Amino acid sequence: MKVGQNTNVEMLAAKLQQNATQQAQQSKSGTASEVVQQTRSNAAGVPVTVSNSARSLDQNAKTSADVDMAKVNAIREAIANGTFKVNASVIADKMLVDTADLLGAARA
């Protein structure tokens, strides 16, 4: 080894560059199946399998929205009109149910 050369630093820099490139590719892909395909092509000789449940989750994610925009827009309109009513009793009941579920899960 020559003085002034540090192969560990060079290897680390190359690995960081490779990771940055993979992350950039994954952020562009968007879906889990595309990320799995890219990972398969990047992993040298490492077989990867995806279960049917994971595939169905990916398909459901593509077809369903996370937010019901019609409901959101209706609530926005009601707030803007001043007709939105908060039912504190319903909110309190749901908070109690959620807390009971959380405590039950913590005890299990």
From TrEMBL:
Residues 27-42, 49-63 have a biased composition (Polar residues). Residues 48-96 form the Anti-sigma-28 factor FlgM C-terminal domain. It holds the Pfam family FlgM. Residues 23-63 are annotated as: Disordered. Keywords: Bacterial flagellum biogenesis, Cell projection, Cilium, Flagellum, Repressor, Transcription, Transcription regulation. InterPro entries: Anti-sigma-28_factor_FlgM_sf, FlgM, FlgM_C. The keyword Glycoprotein does not apply. Responsible for the coupling of flagellin expression to flagellar assembly by preventing expression of the flagellin genes when a component of the middle class of proteins is defective. It negatively regulates flagellar genes by inhibiting the activity of FliA by directly binding to FliA. NCBIfam families: FlgM_jcvi. Belongs to the FlgM family. This is Negative regulator of flagellin synthesis. It comes from Comamonas avium.
